[in-house]
């Protein structure tokens, strides 16, 4: 695999990364083989197949965000949304940079590339912090938890942005011919964030949950991520030559990264559940009453759901479930949400 410490030359000769026109040599580094461009309305678009995957990623992210937002009481709901918002921002910027809608020779290209590099680093950092939400070091959804996530993510973005633009512009001692700091933030920092997140989630599943199936989601996500990196760095030229320049390794790596992000969603969805007693919905629900005091009311005791119709014996609708508890208090003994039934 062409990966030398502190050097983008070997990497960029294999894969057309966003930073490649700006580092390595005075004119940047051109990949040995890259996918064909297409002309749309008089404008040349590079990496058309990869841009299609970026658009698919935006659609899939919108779907995942929608489903997470409907899990009103799930643990870490607000925190994980920031990760998906950042990923969507990465994909939007990648469309403009990979396709050369913003030309590499443009004066603004280094600035947009620096913004993109900062957003990618912030995305990995946000994912890592989400790995600790389940441990409840700070209660999820509270201002403390959210502001720690926001401020630290903003700091990582600013740090990567500064390192990137300083490297591209050859200022403050950063050299585009020897972009060691940028290389560390691009490869080692990203890998570290993934390793910490995966390790934290494995500990969470093994020590806290009864269900072991979420480990499969984690392993699939890691597998897709590793395949994406390997394909981009080791097999991009081989793929490009084999399919006559129609696609290259960047296409498959972008697809694999999308699948890895989807597995993050699948994992999150598998370990969180709705506390239906607290959820808000437009449909009237009927739930089984497990409180022994309510159950002792006998078969003749009927409770009414939101639509005004009597439900079956031992059932209660969401609007009167609170009132049915002794003294109007909720939750009843033994019915708290949280780390129940092998999930949180």
Protein described:
- With 344 residues, the protein is mostly helical.
- It has helices at residues 9-14, 48-69, 77-98, 109-130, 143-169, 180-208, 214-234, 236-242, 249-271, 292-295; strands at residues 38-40, 43-45, 287-288, 315-316.
- The protein has a two-stranded antiparallel ribbon.
- Helix 2 (48-69) runs parallel beside helix 9 (249-271) and helix 4 (109-130) runs antiparallel to helix 5 (143-169).
- Helices cover 53% and strands 3% of the residues.
- The chain is globular and about 75 Å long.
- The chain has 10 helices and 4 strands, in the order αββααααααααβαβ.
Distance between the termini: 41 Å
Radius of gyration (CA) equals: 25 Å
- Structural class, from secondary structure content? mainly alpha
Q: In sequence order, what are the helices and strands, one letter per element?
A: HEEHHHHHHHHEHE
Sequence-ordered SSE layout with sheet pairings:
Blueprint: H1 9-14, E1 38-40, E2 43-45, H2 48-69, H3 77-98, H4 109-130, H5 143-169, H6 180-208, H7 214-234, H8 236-242, H9 249-271, E3 287-288, H10 292-295, E4 315-316
Helix pairs in contact: 2-3, 2-9, 3-4, 4-5, 4-6, 6-7, 7-9
